[in-house]
Amino acid sequence: MSLSHSEALLAIDQGTTSTRAILFSVNGEILSIRQKELALHYPHKGWVEQHPEAIWQDTLLLCQGVINDAQQNDIRIAGIGITNQRETTLIWDRRTGEPVYNAIVWQDRRTTDICNRLKDLGYEKTITEKTGLLIDPYFSASKISWILDHIAGVRARAEKGDLAFGTVDSFLLWKLTEGRVHATDITNAARTMLYNITEQKWDKALLEIFDIPAAILPDVKDNVAAFGTTKPEFLGASYSIGAMAGDQHAALIGQGCFTPGMIKATYGTGCFALMNVGEKFRISKNKLLTTIGYRIDNKICYALEGSIFTAGAAVQWLRDNLGLLVDAPQSEAIALSVPDSNEVYFVPAFTGLGAPYWKPDARGAIMGISRESNAAHIVRATLEAQGYQSRDLIEAMEGEYSDTQLAGILRVDGGMTGNAFVCQFLADMLDRTVEIPEVMESTAWGVAALTGLQCGLFNELNDISRNWVCARRFKPQISETDRRALSDGWRNAVNSVLKNKAI
Ligand code: ADP
């Protein structure tokens, strides 16, 4: 390995709420970081959009800032990697670069009817067998169909080959290379619902089901590849883009989860857990998604994915809607001010329940309230809900395969893991050690590390996992009897929520 202190890797992390450019040393140390909030627009109930030009201009500005920092400190940038919010859909004109519509964000529900129709037509099984996904507006395919059918003239232009579709990675690559490269990586492709993840190619039958012309699709590459070089005028020089990966996949890599059974979970607004399941594709029995963890040197690694829709968002709700907190970190001291939640359970199903329930019409509930219940019990129950929801998810993962032993460790990251109470309760409920990495920016670091592979700073994945350092470790501290009693209470609370439909 040729390590030089003056060499660095630049990660673009284009997320839903903000865009960041981060310069990493080869050891994962952050040398420079720039961030800008990105606005979300809600033109109608259930619609969520972003401005493509804002995504591009913010990315450009942030990269210029970080590159400037690098130059001032005599640091050479060896390559650029891109990681991104997944599924968010853009279509633009190949000649002018003009988007034909705003970016439709993954959270957008406008295509619920399209998805319900496909379910009624009996396509769910075929789609799951090919993509590992469950039919849902979340994924890109129905969003593309919507744009083709609702924006005047777009379908004809798409069929003529004049338009390009891409998720955010692909859009940024196209922009940075000034339209020379129209490509995506396999993890982003896997979330479109048009990509066959067993055969590893765009799927004709899926394109027919969604009525989408193949002419708009990008090329699909490994996560580590010579994606292209940036136009010199943009960043002051030409840099090579050596890696791309969807955000959760990049975090799996940043957390060094390279052996089957290893799991990472990111606790931000929501929670996403990915487990490495090795090179064999298998459909979930427990309503988890099968996805591509990564593909490097043409070697595939699949992952099981489970998502909890509401994690940190419930803490925000305590702060903003109930006024119980001044800020999110205060929840830790308040939770610890009482010995337990006094049998209060909070099922934070604000937008339905995710894996393993998939009940979009479920709604939240606070249960077990008695005359002695107070605000601290509710705060504590909110944080404990993360432990219970994670337990449900991990139990579902455990039930999947007889031949894949889950690791006794959960590697976590995301804003909520700054809360030691949450981490300890997670360890207690999962009966597993919970580890927090020194490099908290797992997502950005993951794609930076992949870029390091492409430009020769790393030789193999093990170089990345060897660099992974644990900053904090939480070990389970409660008895199996207590764990059972607590989780039985949660089960009752969830069962009541599942019985009640949204009003
Ligand atoms: P995202 O990437 O989804 O925007 P972050 O990883 O930045 O999310 O985490 C922010 C979320 O974590 C917010 O919902 C916030 O309420 C929650 N959060 C941040 N710090 C804490 C804390 N110390 N305790 C509990 N929740 C926290």
Give the gist of this structure.
The chain is α+β, with helices and mostly antiparallel strands and 503 residues long. The chain has 17 helices and 23 strands. The strands form 7 sheets. It has a 7-stranded mixed β-sheet with strand order 17-18-16-15-21-22-23.
Explain what you see.
The protein starts with 6 loop residues before the first strand and ends with a helix. A hairpin with a 4-residue loop joins β10 and β11 (201-202). α1 packs across α6, α12 (330-336) packs across α13 and α13 (375-398) packs across α14. By secondary structure, it is of the alpha+beta class. Helix content is 35%, strand content 24%. The protein is globular. It has 17 helices and 23 strands. The longest helix is centred in the C-terminal third of the chain and has 24 residues, at 375-398. The strands form seven sheets. The protein has a seven-stranded mixed sheet. The model has no long low-confidence stretch (mean pLDDT 93). The structure holds adenosine-5'-diphosphate. Residues 15, 17, 268-269, 312-313, 315-316, 328-329, 331-332, 414-416, 418-419 line the site of adenosine-5'-diphosphate.
Q: What is the number of E strands?
A: 23
Bound molecules: adenosine-5'-diphosphate
> How far apart are the first and last residues' alpha carbons, in Å?
60 Å
Query: Helix content range of the residues, please?
Result: 25-40%
How many helices does DSSP assign? 17
Q: Assembly type of the shown chains?
A: single chain
Strand percentage, roughly? 15-25%
What class do helices, strands and sheet pairing give?
alpha+beta
Strand order across the biggest sheet?
Answer: 17-18-16-15-21-22-23
Tell me the overall shape.
globular
Largest sheet: 7 strands, mixed
Q: Which spans of ≥5 residues are poorly predicted at pLDDT below 50?
A: none
